[in-house]
Amino acid sequence: CSSNPCRNGGTCLNLLNSYHCLCPSNWEGPDCATDVNECQLFSGKAQGCQNGATCVNGPGSFTCTCSPEWSGSLCTVRYDDCRNAAQDLCVHGTCIDADRVTPGQVAHRFPTGFSCEQLDPPAATCSSNPGSSPSNIFEGSNIPICTCPEGYIGNGYGPSGCTQTSNICQTSSPCVHGQCVVSVDLHLAFSSAPGYICICNSGWQGVNCEQNINECASSPCLNGGTCSDGVNGFTCSCTAQWTGPLCQT
């Protein structure tokens, strides 16, 4: 064994006028010089490439070329294109994963026959988005367009998608410090809470006029004065050397 006859990490056992090599599992032969063909050895077994992958043998190892739908060292991890994208892609529907046909392709589809949930009052009327793709593979927006019945407003999705315009302000009283006005403009309805906008009282802001405007944010008190925020106003506590509403004198 003094000549180190065992190659590729083999262990040499010194014998009488001879030697024997204990080879790693990926090498064989008297001197561990012959590569084990793992593709042949592991064919059809759990240790080899799975799910229709192509095995490529190399010196001391092997690699798997996966089909488009699979990944991982042995191609045992299936792509699920809905897992991380479903919330963005299917805002009002269920994302169903589809098989990838080409490597790197993202494939998902929406279930057919989407309809708005039954509401009380009656459900909105939904139709296919004219800009959607006829294919099951997602290529654009195929979320249906829903229109609320007369006297109701909203996007039409889900059990609270349509709100009666005549009493939303009276029944909900959503504006904490302001006046509730029924919105007849769908853009306004989408930008705030469904079906109404709030006209805030002085000193208040927010979708529901729930946030007190901080008049001290602009640092109005001068000469080291301390600002105390109020509702639609502020007061300045001046140092001993200064006076006036803004400690300016």
TrEMBL record:
<dbReference type="GO" id="GO:0045597">
    <property type="term" value="P:positive regulation of cell differentiation"/>
</dbReference>
<dbReference type="GO" id="GO:0005509">
    <property type="term" value="F:calcium ion binding"/>
</dbReference>
<dbReference type="Pfam" id="PF00008">
    <property type="entry name" value="EGF"/>
</dbReference>
<dbReference type="InterPro" id="IPR001881">
    <property type="entry name" value="EGF-like_Ca-bd_dom"/>
</dbReference>
<keyword id="KW-0245">EGF-like domain</keyword>
<feature type="domain" description="EGF-like">
    <location>
        <begin position="35"/>
        <end position="76"/>
    </location>
</feature>
<dbReference type="GO" id="GO:0005886">
    <property type="term" value="C:plasma membrane"/>
</dbReference>
<feature type="disulfide bond">
    <location>
        <begin position="66"/>
        <end position="75"/>
    </location>
</feature>
<feature type="domain" description="EGF-like">
    <location>
        <begin position="1"/>
        <end position="33"/>
    </location>
</feature>
<keyword id="KW-0677">Repeat</keyword>
<feature type="disulfide bond">
    <location>
        <begin position="238"/>
        <end position="247"/>
    </location>
</feature>
<dbReference type="GO" id="GO:1901222">
    <property type="term" value="P:regulation of non-canonical NF-kappaB signal transduction"/>
</dbReference>
<dbReference type="InterPro" id="IPR000742">
    <property type="entry name" value="EGF"/>
</dbReference>
<keyword id="KW-0472">Membrane</keyword>
<feature type="domain" description="EGF-like">
    <location>
        <begin position="165"/>
        <end position="210"/>
    </location>
</feature>
<keyword id="KW-0732">Signal</keyword>
<keyword id="KW-1003">Cell membrane</keyword>
<keyword id="KW-0325">Glycoprotein</keyword>
<dbReference type="InterPro" id="IPR000152">
    <property type="entry name" value="EGF-type_Asp/Asn_hydroxyl_site"/>
</dbReference>
<feature type="disulfide bond">
    <location>
        <begin position="23"/>
        <end position="32"/>
    </location>
</feature>
<keyword id="KW-1015">Disulfide bond</keyword>
<feature type="domain" description="EGF-like">
    <location>
        <begin position="212"/>
        <end position="248"/>
    </location>
</feature>
<feature type="disulfide bond">
    <location>
        <begin position="200"/>
        <end position="209"/>
    </location>
</feature>
<dbReference type="GO" id="GO:0060218">
    <property type="term" value="P:hematopoietic stem cell differentiation"/>
</dbReference>
<protein>
    <recommendedName>
        <fullName>EGF-like domain-containing protein</fullName>
    </recommendedName>
</protein>
<dbReference type="InterPro" id="IPR018097">
    <property type="entry name" value="EGF_Ca-bd_CS"/>
</dbReference>
